């Protein structure tokens, strides 16, 4: 499972959606909310506008910021 998680985190990092920092032997990943917002705005405008799911997606992003 760890290799699968590492694979996904590496791809998210390459896409600019997460940042990483080292603390000792650990790697700490954090969400880059501004980049995530930009991606979601693009998707909502170009892909999801007619489905009405935009509000639900925006709500999830905002909840993640407060956590």
Strand content: 15-25%
Q: Helical element count?
A: 3
Structural class: alpha+beta
Question: Average pLDDT, to the nearest integer?
Answer: 82
Task: Write the topology of this structure.
Blueprint: H1 2-14, E1 18-23, E2 26-31, H2 33-48, H3 54-66
Antiparallel strand pairs: 1-2
Helix pairs in contact: 2-3
Based on the model shown, name its key terms.
18% strand; 67 residues; alpha+beta; 3 helices; two-stranded antiparallel sheet; single chain
Q: Can you give a write-up of this model?
A:
With 67 residues, the protein is an alpha+beta fold. The protein is 63% helix and 18% strand. It has helices spanning 2-14, 33-48, 54-66, and strands spanning 18-23, 26-31. The protein has a two-stranded antiparallel sheet. The radius of gyration is 14 Å and the shape is elongated.
Summarize the model shown.
The protein is α+β, with helices and mostly antiparallel strands. 63% of the residues lie in helices and 18% in strands. Strand 1 and strand 2 form a beta hairpin.
């Amino acid at each position: 499972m760890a290799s699968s998680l590492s694979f996904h985190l590496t791809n998210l990092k390459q896409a600019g959606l997460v940042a990483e920092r080292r603390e000792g032997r650990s790697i700490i990943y954090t969400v880059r909310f501004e980049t995530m917002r930009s991606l979601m705005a693009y998707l909502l405008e170009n892909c999801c506008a007619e489905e009405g799911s935009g509000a639900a997606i925006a709500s999830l992003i905002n909840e993640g910021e407060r956590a």
